[in-house]
Design goal:
The protein is α+β, with helices and mostly antiparallel strands. Helices cover 39% and strands 22% of the residues. It has 2 domains: 297 residues, BirA Bifunctional Protein, domain 2 (2-Layer Sandwich); 87 residues, Rossmann fold (3-Layer(aba) Sandwich), CATH 3.40.50.800. It binds one RNA strand through helix 2, helix 13 and strand 14.
Length: 411
RNA sequence: GCCAGGGUAGGGUAGUUGGUUAUCCUAGGGGACUGUGGAUCCCCCGACCCGGGUUCGAGUCUCGGCCCUGGCCCCA
């Protein structure tokens, strides 16, 4: 038999309902913050992604040549595409732009728990704002979104200026290597690299920086940096709004287009793949040939959030089963229409089953059955039976519909 | 790309000193039961991941591959 591609998943209705429920809560939060949804193509010109991350990431992407000989890639993330979209379509839109997305991405990687080749991200981008309160807004929104999902997490906030202050006299390439070591918390690798570069004296201050948990401690190591006041203001806002976070000067976020504030979130109950959110302030537009625009944003690893939430039982939807005899089929279908017009999930027999078998089948998912025979058809009624209580009454069709609508969901 | 552990009906399983028709539960379909449900009973459907090797004979042993799970690497 044909199997699904490696690293992809099928979702049955129960799981889809859980995912949609979480997705809906996130959408509602984003909407309340004024972030409106955008959508970009599933695939883009390969160059959109290599311009930013280098040729190396081709190995980790789904890349193909289309029939016109153009090199394309399934999007491995959304931020670059949104920036391209901004440059293409929305450069003159009043700032700031508050956008969000919920979309699937593709990466050609070794699958494991919480890591798939097709995965979904819920993300936001705030374009054209470059203030302390903009930084704070994005972080507060990140917190609200994760909170709405019900996941248990911790939020870590850093700023690239801390490391850069200590590394300011080194060239950019060297900085990048060292920041990579710091991000990975690879102390030995860091020390030996510094030793080879003849800068062993930096080791202790860099490692001490990783241990800092307050801005004052950081400044004690880096000295007063130009960004100090801005960072203090952002963190102060978060404190005033009772946002719980840890200051983590070790966050480097691998990429060089991040410019200032960076942050990550981790699920409390996941193993190796426990990062469920990452983001920060960045500049990207120049790479795509546009005027620079300060932006910030983040993406939530939606699948990891779902793994963290585990198998929780979704709300049971009210279901009505229409049970009827063969000679009342048309009346039964009209009755079903009336229940559906009231917004109820309504199912009718299409298997030619007996009355008893229809009820038996309906009772697996439904809370109500409307039983219809010749008598009900003649009088324009249905016999509404509550399968939870066993009560049943013959009611006018419209009364029966109202009865179910006002009954409220089960359990 | 690396390491470890796994793959038997849709789901969960038994079967490993190699031996007839591969066990049980559950789910699904039908019936007992054509105007009243989840019980019960009966019937049906349905599996050894793929390929090579050893053997008279492989679910079982062996090799390779694929896939899953966990970890490493990576993680935009």
């Amino acid at each position: 038999m044909i199997q699904k591609p490696r690293g992809t998943r099928d979702f049955l209705p129960d799981e889809m309902e859980q995912r949609r429920a979480v997705e809906k809560r996130m959408r509602d939060v984003a909407r309340c913050w004024g972030y409106r949804e955008v959508c970009t193509p599933e695939f883009e010109e390969l160059e959109l992604f290599t311009a930013r991350s280098g040729e190396g990431i081709i190995e980790e992407m789904y890349v193909f040549e289309d029939k016109g000989g153009r090199m394309m890639a399934l999007r491995p993330e959304i931020t670059a595409a949104v920036q391209r979209m901004y440059l293409n379509e929305a450069r003159v839109t009043p700032k700031p732009l508050r956008w969000c997305y919920f979309a699937d991405c593709f990466r050609y990687e070794r699958p494991q728990k919480g890591r798939y080749r097709q995965f979904w991200q819920f993300g936001v981008e705030l374009i054209g704002a470059d203030t302390p309160v903009a930084d704070a807004e994005v972080i507060m929104l990140a917190r609200d979104l994760l909170q709405s999902s019900g996941v248990s997490f911790s939020l870590h906030i850093g700023h690239l200026s801390f490391m850069k202050a200590l590394l300011s006299d080194m060239d950019v390439k060297e900085q990048r290597i060292l920041m990579r070591y710091l991000d990975k918390k690879d102390h030995e690798g860091l020390k030996s690299h510094l030793g080879r570069a003849g800068r062993a004296e930096l080791g202790s201050s860099l490692l001490a920086l990783l241990e800092c948990r307050t801005l004052d401690e950081v400044i004690g190591i880096t000295g007063k940096i130009p960004e100090y006041e801005r960072i203090e203001e952002t963190l102060g806002l978060l404190d005033d709004m009772d946002i719980r976070y840890s200051l983590d000067p070790g966050i480097a976020r691998g990429l060089d287009y991040y410019t200032g504030m960076v942050f990550e979130a981790f699920a409390d109950n996941l193993g190796a793949e426990n990062q469920i959110l990452g983001g920060g302030a960045y500049r990207l537009a120049h790479l795509f040939g546009g005027d620079e625009v300060p932006s910030s944003g983040f993406a939530i690893g939606f699948d990891r959030v779902m793994v963290s939430l585990g198998d929780s039982e979704g709300e049971t939807e009210r279901v009505v089963g229409i049970v009827y005899t063969p000679d009342t089929r048309t009346y039964a279908l009209r009755a079903a229409r009336a229940f559906r017009e009231a917004g109820l999930r309504t199912e009718t027999d299409i298997m030619g089953r007996s009355i008893g078998a229809q009820i038996a089948h309906a009772s697996k998912s439904a809370q109500f059955v409307a039983i219809i025979g010749r008598r009900e058809r003649e009088s324009g009624t249905v016999t509404l039976k509550n399968l939870d209580t066993g009560d049943q009454r013959e009611l006018d069709l419209s009364t029966a519909v109202r009865e179910v609508v006002t009954s409220g969901p089960r359990g």
